[in-house]
Amino acid sequence: MSDVSNESPNTTARTEATKPEAAVARPVVGRLVPGEAAGAEDPSLTLRELSAGALLEVGAWPNRRENVANRLGELAGVTLPGRPGRFTESPSALVCWIAFGRFIYVGAAAEDTARVDTALDTEDAAVVDLSGARRIVRIEGETAREVLNKAVAIDFDPAAFPAGALAQSVIHQIPAVILRRSETVFDVLAPSSLADALIDWMTDAALEFGYRVEEPGTIL
Amino acid sequence: MRIHCPCCGPRGVAEFSYGGDGTVRRPDLSVTDTDAHVAYVFERENPRGPHVELWHHIGGCRHWLRVTRDTLTHEITSVEMAGRFAGEAARISGAGA
């Protein structure tokens, strides 16, 4: 069959008009570019993307929670929080208790994926590797909670939501886990396929306070 | 309208998905009376006042909840965990604060 071109003359013209050189006036969307700043001369917020060595969801079968919690605590070197909606961390791991029977284990080392999987009995829990399925965005600053409160109606007053608290909610139609690492630092876990949209939303929401994008870091 | 999730605390209704009447029970599959199955699938009361209904916290912990809501005033008088983790929820103090 002979060479077939799908491009009509009109299509060709439009493609040339929007080639990258012509589109640079538009801010980069969907990803954080270190060094980029917007909104204010002295931005009060910083944004950065974080990585984790291992990120797993652990689903305990009903009535197996104590076994699972004890095992996860040993693996992470932490005493697990007393209830869902809290997380605890050591230098090497962070364990989130996200719902009855469900945990997220974040490890500094990639080997933790296999370590946690083999350490938990399948009679107690199911382990799902989410390392590639989540991206983590950190928003830091006095006004970080105001930015998040544009999307979620959760009381982020430190008395109600102290460091160590977490919330699962929806930001810009994106299911997210929000971890309060300190009074002014929030880490947001979002599905990888929607993280670009989350970053779009977050940079837009942070614009009124001003933000600066820092180099990527690690969650631990 | 806000629902006080036993796991997550008070959250806006937009995080929840309605799951229908919380009192209907599927007849045992050995029951051959088709009327019983028709009633289970199709027949619902339309109460004016307190109503027990299921809500799914899809935008949060993803637990199913059994909520008693007044259909006239939207006042919610009780929220309980439904399903297999109900017992565990009852044993953990401080959840949903």
Which terms would index this structure?
A: 220 residues, alpha+beta, Gyrase A, domain 2, Alpha-Beta Plaits, five-stranded antiparallel beta sheet, 6 helices, B: 97 residues, Folate-binding fold, four-stranded antiparallel beta sheet, 2 helices, globular
Structure, explained:
The complex is a heterodimer of chains A (220) and B (97). Chain A has 220 residues and is α+β, with helices and mostly antiparallel strands. In chain A, the strands form two sheets. In chain A, strands 1, 2, 8, 9, 10, 11, 12 and 13 form an eight-stranded mixed β-sheet that branches. Chain A has a five-stranded antiparallel β-sheet with strand order 4-5-6-3-7, with helices on one face. Chain A starts with 8 loop residues before the first helix and ends with a strand. Chain A is 24% helix and 33% strand. Chain A has six helices and 13 strands. Chain B has two helices and six strands, in the order E-E-E-H-E-E-E-H. The two termini of chain B are 18 Å apart. Classes of the chains: A alpha+beta (220), B alpha+beta (97). Chain A binds chain B through residues 62-63, 65, 82-85, 98-102, 153-154, 167-170, 175, and chain B through 7-9, 11-12, 14-15, 59-63, 81, 84-85, 87-89, 92-97.
